[in-house]
Amino acid sequence: MKGLQGTPGAAAGCAAICQFFVVAISVAILCINRYQITDVFAFYSFPYVWRFVSCAYSPTSITSCNYLYAVGAFGLLFSILIGFLQCAAGRSNGMGMHACNVVVNFMHLGWWIAAGVYFTVEYNDLPKASDFGSDVDTGIPYSYMRAINALCFTAVAFAALSMIASFAGLISARKAPKEEHGSGYAAEKPSPQQAPMYNPTPGTYAYPPPAPGYPGSPPPTGGYPPAPAGYPPAPTGYPPAPAGYPPPPAGYAPPPARA
After folding, report:
1. CB count, 10 Å around CB of 15?
2. In degrees to the nearest 10, what's the CA dihedral of 103, 109, 110, 111?
3. Where are the alpha helices (DSSP H) in 33-141?
4. Distance, CA of 67 to CA of 111 (rounded, Å)
5. What distance in Å separates the CA atoms of residue 138 and residue 144, rounded to the nearest whole number?
6. In the chain, what is the straight-line distance between the N-terminal and C-terminal CA atoms, in Å?
7. Among residues 52, 55, 33, 34, which one has the least CA distance to residue 43?
8. Contact, 57 vs 176, CB < 8 A?
9. Backbone angles phi, psi at 171, to 5 degrees
10. What is the C-alpha separation between 155 and 26, in angstroms, rounded?
11. What pTM did the predictor assign?
């Protein structure tokens, strides 16, 4: 394919826009995790004992925060990889790059779905102020955790759009002519002089007649010159048979005279 054009070009553009937003979401998740969820003061049980915790999702484990770091980092790397694959697929001569792009987009979508489900469950398991019998501030950043859930499912939506766009590019590449997407060589096209013309008779083809005025050497203006003098006259009849040959059988016509 020559550049990004047609359906593959539109798919590449759509996927690029989606991945731009996913990059922004990944960066936002990393920043929220670093400055609002990791290393905070909160309490999780009565009596209200405020203490420093390494991860607001749990007072005893930092697994959730480490996973959130991984979600943002790998989401960012996936988006960059998909951007390169989309550009390569848009300019590729084969379907392999398009298929690889679809597979990576599918993995990217699954990554964000898993993250959204996990952190939604973690948020629902957090203690609420009502659990302590009064409306108190527990120090747990609920609003930022809800933002994490929203960002994860927003990334799911953009990853799904990107996967659909990459799949559309794969279908378009599959339907493209061989010389554009996958044969490795351009099909040899016959020249107009060699191309057969349509003939209504089934199973036959008619070739075009030669062009008028086919080039050739014209005869001399004054005609061809006569034969030079001294040439013997053309012989007439057959030469006599050598001596000793039997005579021809009776009934045969005499040999014709030579011109």
Report:
1. 30
2. 110
3. 63-90, 96-124
4. 12
5. 14
6. 71
7. 52
8. no
9. -65, -40
10. 8
11. 0.61
Q: Residues with Cβ < 8 Å from 236, sequence gap 6 or more? A: 257, 258
Q: What is the chain's pLDDT, residue by residue, as a tens digit (259 residues)?
A: 344 445 566 777 788 889 999 999 999 999 999 998 988 766 555 555 556 678 888 878 889 999 999 999 999 999 999 888 877 766 665 677 778 888 999 999 999 999 999 999 999 988 776 666 666 667 788 899 999 999 999 999 999 999 998 888 888 777 765 544 444 444 445 555 555 555 555 555 555 665 666 566 666 777 767 767 777 766 666 667 777 777 767 776 666 666 5
Nearest to 90 by CA among 189, 9, 204, 192: 9
Spatial CA neighbour of 71 closest among 82, 60, 63: 63
Give me the residue label for tokens 């030579």.
Answer: 258
